[in-house]
Design goal:
By secondary structure, the chain is an alpha/beta fold. It is 41% helix and 12% strand.
């Protein structure tokens, strides 16, 4: 009951924040004060044309940062336009179930958050003297009616695979609905497909807007956050269709750092990168020391934006004792992702879903009494930006009301430190968690069953079929740590990710719960060339297409 009351109170404050306080977010820069005594350089005829396709204006952590990019790019001579939804879309990434306690109202098209979205964001960008394009400029009522009719003709079972004008709008719609509910499947949600249809409608509108816009206007590059969901995933697909260069970005893990990628969301580009391209830099003991010091801090998140780990004063042996795990017998760890997150971010390989992988693994170890299986359910199920409403523990309990004595589960709300637990394991099994990058740096063998970034990078065991997975499990326990040469490859890749791909900038700072970071710029001089090395890397990458890498 207490957790239910906590969730009700949390939802109340979130809705109140959206209704009253969102336009005054600390992540929203007030540019009229900053640029009073400054001016931007006059545009040259050959200036690079950049569209910052923010779209969801009240996502201040993102739109605020993109307004900083606008200012920095203008200082470097780029010609900038921005794009915002002005209430056209019936659903978007800003919508989730906590803001709409009556799903039926939302499914019928009521979207009160629009009132706190467009106008404040338009004001923020306009203060920088850039043209703000609206969705309504590029889609008229007659076209909306045509698309609305199309929405009604598609059966629920056909939504996901529907393609419009070469754009997989159905796939984006289902992704948006899953994120809305915080679930890996829509089954069991009374208004699941009603919500999915709103995202389907929004995906169609977005595709139509971008088709019209790019047929009328020419841009050298389109920049926008995430690169997945609705509308961002659709925007990316249309840009690629028209041959327009795309830059996507997201907040990274390290404090005050961001990750940028060319062509697509980093969720996809990091998987596609070859190990050679990631490891092609000089390695030395100093880098090794910097990396391992940072990885040690990851256990409590002291050097990160956000952490789901609690610092544990208990020794690993004490934690195992609390779980009735015998530290003298082999322990194999299993780390989950959040169900809806895994469904959207990781392509299936050997298994059709993360749940299928979990069930198979439990079933296997239920017949291996010689090994203890320790399942750590991801804390983000309850602590994440979009808390999960389909819980791994509940799904397991439905299938196994009573688990075998050798299988132990650490619930997402349990404060036990994941790092301390996994360091006691002979081997760790993962689907797609980022800990698959970190654990091998300590010599802990990792088996990857999903589409994690580490797949194919040379320091994990990668699963390609169920038969292969069973053979890998039958060879456990390994009873040894990884070889030094393989550990070095793991550390080089981790350094590449955390210190080369994650770009630090000076003007950000940690903030509170509802808005985890904010931007503090007192003068445009802070954004000028040669002042902030990280910002220089970002702006050069956007304008010239150079790699988003810190040397």
């Amino acid at each position: 009951m207490s957790s239910q009351l906590t969730r009700i109170k949390e939802n109340f404050y979130i809705r109140r924040f959206v209704r009253l306080l969102r336009p005054y977010s600390p992540a929203r820069p007030v540019w009229r004060k900053t640029i009073k005594s400054h001016s931007f350089p006059k545009l040259k005829k050959n200036a690079h044309k950049v569209l910052v396709a923010t779209s969801t204006g009240s996502h201040w952590a993102m739109s605020g940062f993109e307004s900083v990019l606008v200012a920095a790019l203008k200082l470097r001579g780029a010609s900038i336009e921005t794009l915002l939804c002005d209430g056209v879309l019936p659903a978007c990434q800003e919508c989730d179930v906590r803001l709409f306690p009556d799903n039926r109202l939302f499914s019928e098209g009521v979207s009160p958050i629009c009132k706190t979205c467009f106008k404040p964001a338009e004001k923020m960008f306009s203060e920088l003297g850039v043209v703000v394009r609206r969705y309504s400029e590029f889609i008229h009522e007659s076209q909306r009616k045509v698309l609305d009719s199309l929405v009604e003709t598609i059966a629920d079972k056909d939504l996901k695979k529907y393609v419009w004008s070469g754009i997989p709008v159905g796939e984006h719609a289902i992704a948006g609905a899953l994120r809305f509910f915080g679930r890996g499947t829509l089954s069991g949600e009374k208004f699941g497909f009603s919500i999915a249809r709103q995202f389907f409608r929004a995906a169609l509108y977005t595709a139509a807007v971008m088709e019209k816009m790019l047929s009328q206007k020419k841009y050298d590059v389109v920049v926008f956050h995430h690169g997945i969901y609705v509308p961002q995933g659709v925007i990316g697909d249309v840009c690629r269709k028209y041959g327009v260069r795309v830059v996507n970005w997201n907040p990274a893990y390290r404090d005050r750092s961001f990750i940028f990628s060319h062509g697509d969301s980093y969720h996809k580009t990091m998987i596609e990168e070859s190990s050679e391209s990631c490891l092609n830099f000089e390695w030395n003991p100093d880098k090794d020391s910097v990396l391992m010091e940072y990885l040690s801090s990851r256990s409590n998140g002291s050097n990160d934006w956000i952490s789901f780990q609690k610092h544990s004063q208990s020794e690993t042996t004490e934690l195992l004792k609390e779980l009735n795990i015998d530290h003298n017998r082999p322990v194999v760890g299993l780390l989950t992702n959040v169900l809806w997150d895994a469904q959207l971010h990781f392509k299936a390989n050997a298994f059709s879903s993360m749940l299928e992988w979990i069930f198979f693994t439990i079933d296997y170890f239920s017949r291996r009494s010689d090994i203890q299986l320790l399942i750590r359910i991801h804390p983000a199920e309850v602590l994440g930006t979009v808390p999960s409403r389909q819980l791994v523990f509940e799904e397991i309990k439905i299938r196994w009301p009573t688990l075998p004595n050798n299988i132990h589960i650490v619930a997402p709300e349990d404060p036990k430190n994941t790092y301390a637990l996994m360091k006691a394991c002979d081997t760790v099994l993962v689907y797609g968690t980022k800990m698959s990058i970190e654990l091998p740096c300590w010599g802990i063998p990792v088996v990857v069953a999903g589409e994690a970034w580490v797949r194919g990078k040379g320091f994990t065991t990668d699963v390609n079929s169920i038969h292969e997975y069973k053979e890998i499990l039958s060879a456990l326990p390994k009873r040894q740590r990884m070889q030094k040469s393989v550990i070095e490859i793991a550390r080089r890749y981790a350094y590449y990710l955390f210190f080369r791909r994650m770009i630090p900038v000076k003007f950000t700072k940690k903030n509170g719960f509802l808005v985890p970071f904010s931007y503090n710029i007192k003068s445009l001089d802070e954004l000028a060339t040669n002042v902030d090395p990280g910002l220089d890397v970002i702006c050069k990458g956007i304008i010239l297409g150079t790699p988003f890498l810190v040397d």
